[in-house]
């Protein structure tokens, strides 16, 4: 079993569809560290690049916060 991996992907509709199915079927775990408004991008970038940072930070448009 692979615990972690790094890869670069050129996204396509087919690949993204497969990834969505994996998430829905609980075959792929997504670790979200936090959800921040887009205006916090500079702070999110510096926080997310810390060596001990686990999980991803999700930036959302502020209109969707309402």
Can you offer a commentary on this structure?
By secondary structure, this protein is α+β, with helices and mostly antiparallel strands. The protein has one domain. It contains 2 helices and 2 strands; from the N terminus they run αβαβ. Helix 2 links the parallel strand 1 and strand 2. It is globular. The N and C termini lie far apart (41 Å).
Number of strands: 2
Which percent bin holds the helix content? 25-40%
User: How many structurally independent domains?
Assistant: 1
- Structural class from helices and strands? alpha+beta
Spatial order of strands in the largest sheet: 1-2
Mean pLDDT: 80
Shape: globular
Strand content: 15-25%
For the largest beta-sheet, the strand count, sense and barrel status come to:
2 strands, parallel
Low-confidence stretches: none
Q: Between the first and last Cα atoms, what is the distance in angstroms? A: 41 Å
Radius of gyration from CA coordinates: 14 Å
Q: What is the string of helix and strand elements? A: HEHE
Number of helices: 2
Brief characterization of the structure:
This protein has 66 residues and is α+β, with helices and mostly antiparallel strands. It has helices spanning 13-24, 41-48; strands spanning 32-37, 56-60.
């Amino acid at each position: 079993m692979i615990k972690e991996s790094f890869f670069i992907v050129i996204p396509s509709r087919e690949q993204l569809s497969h990834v969505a199915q994996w998430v829905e079927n609980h075959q792929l775990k997504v670790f979200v560290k936090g959800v921040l408004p887009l205006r916090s991008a500079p702070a999110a970038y510096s926080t997310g690049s810390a060596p001990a940072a686990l999980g991803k930070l999700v930036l959302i448009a502020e209109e969707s916060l309402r």
